[in-house]
Write a structure and sequence with these properties.
Strand 7 (about 100-110) and strand 8 form a beta hairpin. This protein is mostly beta strands and about 250 residues long. About 10% of the residues lie in helices and about 45% in strands. It starts with a strand and ends with a strand. The chain has helices at about 45-50, 210-215, 220-235, and strands spanning about 1-5, 10-20, 25-30, 40, 70-75, 80-90, 100-110, 115-125, 130-135, 135-140, 150-160, 170-175, 180-185, 185-190, 205-210, 240-245.
């Protein structure tokens, strides 16, 4: 199902994708500069990208399996044809000092020759209930500053729970090879309102990585827009647990 919304700065197209990968996720993609997002199955990936996930390949340094893939998308922007491959992997037999949960995203550009543009890799050691998963939006693809180069925001949760609690939450965003980030804790939310439970000891706090933002070549105006965008993606995805509270 596809629903179109218009905001002041960005016209966003939201798509809910059901993949035959035992998972369902939703995407948001900007319609600015005619960036159109395609959602793919494994068989639709170019062979030059597939080899990064073949167990016999020397390119597969993390020993990933295509069964770990939860979402694949592609688009064309000013840099050429791009493929975003997103994986998550859980190891319930892991010891406390080894990765029990991993979240991995790779962006490939296949113009002229296939190359990996960037990698997001995060993990959590855990011997309890491990959390390592993407939010309801595995990726938010936009062109906020209208330069023809897509920004890719990847929100996810990681944690190790021994009880009911919020998780660590991060949004890593790239424009080309320039990295941006916002980090904090996910929120415990009211299932009736869909809003975080107050006071703030139920999570929801965050910090934008200002160092990464200031190191970029963005204009001051675009820095403001990028901050606003990161906060918006955070608000849309901050709820990792929902509770039903009695009136």
């Amino acid at each position: 199902m596809m629903n179109q919304r218009t905001s002041k700065a960005i016209k966003v197209l939201s798509v809910t994708l059901m993949l035959a990968l035992n998972s369902s996720y939703s995407y948001s993609a900007s319609n600015i500069n005619t960036i159109s997002i395609n959602h793919l199955a494994w068989s639709q990936l170019p062979a030059t990208v597939q080899k990064y996930y073949q167990t016999s390949s020397t390119l597969n340094k993390l020993k990933l399996n295509n069964k770990d893939i939860v979402a694949i998308s592609s688009w064309v922007d000013a840099t050429g044809t791009n493929y975003l491959v997103q994986l998550q992997r859980l190891d319930y037999a892991a010891t406390f000092d080894s990765p029990a949960g991993e979240v991995i995203s790779h962006l490939y550009n296949v113009d002229q020759a296939t190359r990996r543009v960037w990698q997001i890799y995060d993990y959590v050691p855990c011997d309890l209930d491990v959390i390592a998963r993407y939010t309801k939006e595995t990726a938010v693809v936009t062109d906020i500053n209208n330069n023809g180069v897509a920004e890719v925001s990847v929100p996810y949760y990681i944690g190790c729970r021994g009880d009911v609690s919020y998780d660590e939450m991060k949004i890593i965003m790239y424009e080309g090879k320039q990295k941006f980030a916002i980090r904090g804790n996910s929120a415990i939310c009211d299932s009736k309102t869909g809003l975080p439970v107050k006071p703030n000891n139920y999570g929801g706090e965050y910090t934008i990585d200002e160092k990464l933002l200031q190191q970029s070549e963005l204009s001051e105006h675009n820095k403001v827009m990028f901050r606003r965008h990161l906060k918006s993606v955070w608000r849309d995805n901050q709820c990792s647990i929902y509770f039903k509270y009695d009136d």
